[in-house]
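User: Please predict the structure of the protein below. I'd like the answer in structure-token form so I can feed it into my own downstream comparison script.

Assistant: Understood. Taking the following sequence of 251 residues as input:
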Amino acid sequence: MAHNPPDQGLVHLRTLIRISGLAAILGTLLYAVSDVLLVGVTADLADHPALQPHAALLGKMVKLAAVPKWRLVWGGLLGIFAAPLTVAGFWQMYRGLLPAGPVVALPPLLLFAWAQIVSPFLHGSHIYLGEYIQALDTLAPESQGVIAAMVERHNRILAVTLGCMLGCVAIASVLYSVLVFRGRTAFPRWLSAFNPFTVVLLWSLLSKLLPGSIRTATSGAGMNFAFLVFFGLNTLTLWRQAPVWQSAKKD
């Protein structure tokens, strides 16, 4: 009995989707490591008397006063270079949503990708913020005004960027879950509960159960852990589902 040869286009598409998922998982792991290097420390204001007048301005970022220079640099750079790998995971997600139609599958892709492309600016800016804070820590009170003003402007810029990024992630997460729950995608309906926004909320609760040292080390990596779960579940789901490729090809 003759067997039809496999459609090479579908074989190549399956390979690309698998590679995209693995690349996103690797990129997210590296990004999480960079978060640990960059902000996975704690600092007590009592140990930094020069920063005490600026406690309200610095907030949680006072921890950057305790980050060694090498961690500031390599923690920032590792995240910047890892981020492009994660964008491949959103293309994979798009292929999984595509059976529902390109018009509805495209908005989550664009919103997630935009947020992730912007995120290295936010991440890498902590290198300079850390430099400002550590410089502030060495200056006499009468000489701190210029640096403190720089930190204040820097914080405003980061707040706008973070707000826009989180807004895009939240909207894209809702769109993803709605499409998956409707049942017209390549993903099972139960996966609608595990979008990046819901997973990061779950992480914020579960992380309170971790030992103190681990909780401190991973305090800045919540979003990347959420994306790690997201990409991992998507990749696992799409790995062997042949109908995905057929539906995607038809679209």
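That's the full token string. The CA atoms of residues 38 and 68 lie 9 Å apart.
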